[in-house]
Design brief:
The complex is a heterodimer of chains A (336) and B (295).
Chain A: H1 3-19, H2 21-42, E1 50-55, H3 62-68, E2 73-78, H4 81-89, E3 95-98, E4 103-106, H5 111-124, H6 141-172, H7 174-179, H8 185-215, H9 223-245, H10 251-268, H11 280-286, H12 290-304, H13 312-332
Helix pairs in contact in A: 1-8, 2-6, 2-8, 3-5, 6-8, 6-9, 6-10, 6-12, 8-9, 9-12, 9-13, 12-13
Chain B: E1 5-14, E2 17-27, E3 32-36, H1 43-50, E4 58-63, E5 66-67, H2 70-75, E6 76-79, H3 91-99, H4 108-114, H5 130-142, E7 148-152, H6 160-175, E8 179-184, H7 187-193, E9 196-201, E10 204-209, H8 211-218, E11 222-227, H9 235-239, E12 243-246, E13 249-254, H10 257-266, E14 275-278, H11 281-289
Parallel strand pairs in B: 3-8, 3-9, 6-7, 7-8
Antiparallel strand pairs in B: 1-2, 1-4, 4-5, 9-10, 11-13, 11-14, 12-13
Classes of the chains: A mainly alpha (336), B alpha/beta (295).
Amino acid sequence: MSLQRLLAILTARNLEFWRDRSALSWNIAFPVLIVFGFAFAFSTGGPDLFKVGVLEHSPATPAMARFTALEHIQFIPVEQVETAVTKVERHQLDMLVDGASGRYWINDRSANGYVLEKLLRGAAVEGGLSKQTVTGEALRYVDWLIPGVLGMNVMFSSLFGVGYTIVRYRKNGVLKRLKATPLTALEFLSAQVASRLWLIVSVTSLVYAGTNLLVNFRMYGSYLTLFLVLLVGTFSLICLSLIIAARLASEETANGLLNMISWPMMMLSGVWFSLEGSPQIIQQAALLFPLTHMINAARAVMIDGAGLLDITPELLIMLVMSALFMTIGARCFRWE
Amino acid sequence: MSPILQVDNLVKHFGSVEAVNGVSFSIRRGTCFGLLGPNGAGKTTTVEIMEGITPPTAGGILYREQPIGQAFREQAGIMFQETSLQEYIRVGETLKLFQRFYDHTRPLDELIERCALGEFLDRDVRRLSGGQRQRLLLAIALINDPEIVFLDEPTTGLDPQARRNFWQLVNDIKQEQKTLVLTTHYMEEAYELCDEIAIMDHGRIIAQGTPQALLKQHFDTSVISLPRADLPPDLEQVTGLQLHPHNDQVEIFSHDLNRTIRILIERHVPLTHLQVRSRTLEDLFLELTGRDLRS
């Protein structure tokens, strides 16, 4: 491998990207917008878990008064029993209570209704229990979400930024021209990977830092370890895109394939919600995606304060995946 | 002297289409070899196999008596018929990019001057005119000071002046004793530049030799051209001359110009618009295939 040739094509790719203002703006603006958007949407705390309709007209019994004083339940005043009961039927309300009579309505099929009934009955009975308290900062949904959203953006930027570009080069003949030079496929692919890697790592780091100033994420681990997770995770996702880019010459087909990979990965890698409690087969399928390991490792560092040793298995899995993807991508690669 | 490039029984099939079907020839060092033929004749496929871009279905290529390898990549300059360069990169940057691919290169200043690229070195390659673009692609093909240069239809789409300028560039390269492989469907271009030509049709070579030798081999006539309106209707019957109507002109193929013109004068044919020309490669192709070259 010639370092001179690798650096030459790397420089050209960086220049091309830097001067393509629309691509540049999009690659920077999109992660900023999406992370800021989610950060603000969820930084004020999550919504109340339960919704209970309360008939307005009457004073409450002592048990009802204790129930309606509970926190983290949204109590919504209602006037007409019939309308409110319909909402309970349709799961728009989890429960309806009449404070004066002590009557309440729940839907037998509503899990929330079941829990609320237990709470209501518990409020009616006093004593016998001993309360212990602990203190600590609440983990906001945004703290849990940010590693996922940043990871998702890294995934899209890696897959489309490299895969799509190589397919375009092949389609318009740039690769054919390069093939006629001493440049090898390995040199060319390495340059594409390196170019995208530094770009994504830089942009993601900037977006993280900028958003953190406003939202102040929970970060209990080491920034260096988190950076390593970003580096290895991005590398593995870029290598995955090389397989898509290996032979295709149609941007439309490439687009379809990239979507076919990225959407399941986004849904199953724990970007938006935890897969704990989901069927075992789903959880195991998610482990096939490098994004799952990247997000798991990032969350472990940020939320649990995990050290390098704790996330070594995730890093090793991503490195093995990278080697596998790179080998397949390079072996299948065609200039035309 | 051993040939610099030897093509041996080359075959290329694309599915059921036989693009190249048993082509063999060799190219002498320091000569310009022309591969001629109409669109679809198989000349671009042949030349791309010779360049190592497309693998053949059968047959082989030897460069300096060796199969094509890394040495060939270092010593060959290639100008494709259709190619793109990386977008948003300027002319000067593109030259530097390709220069860094090779171990041995020409000085950029010399290339820039030779190909007249100095005025637009800072221009994005997407904003070049057709002629400027072809000169840049030629400069890229020459950047490694190649032993052999492939030019695949380099002047297609250029206006006549740009084409003439390009020919001058190619002639300059010839002066340096470089070996040139040129594909074209412009017969005038082939006649101007090539030392030897091979005419291809339907994936086969149908004639090969120097342009002059091929014309001499196939033709011993000159062509007299006159407006159809100036000729008496019974000229062919009375004189025995062979007339070939061509639009509003009539062409007379003559073995003896003096005798033919004397006959025309005797028949009181006005000679004001008379034109005489030698037979061309275009005529040769028509003679060999019955079709026009650019059909």
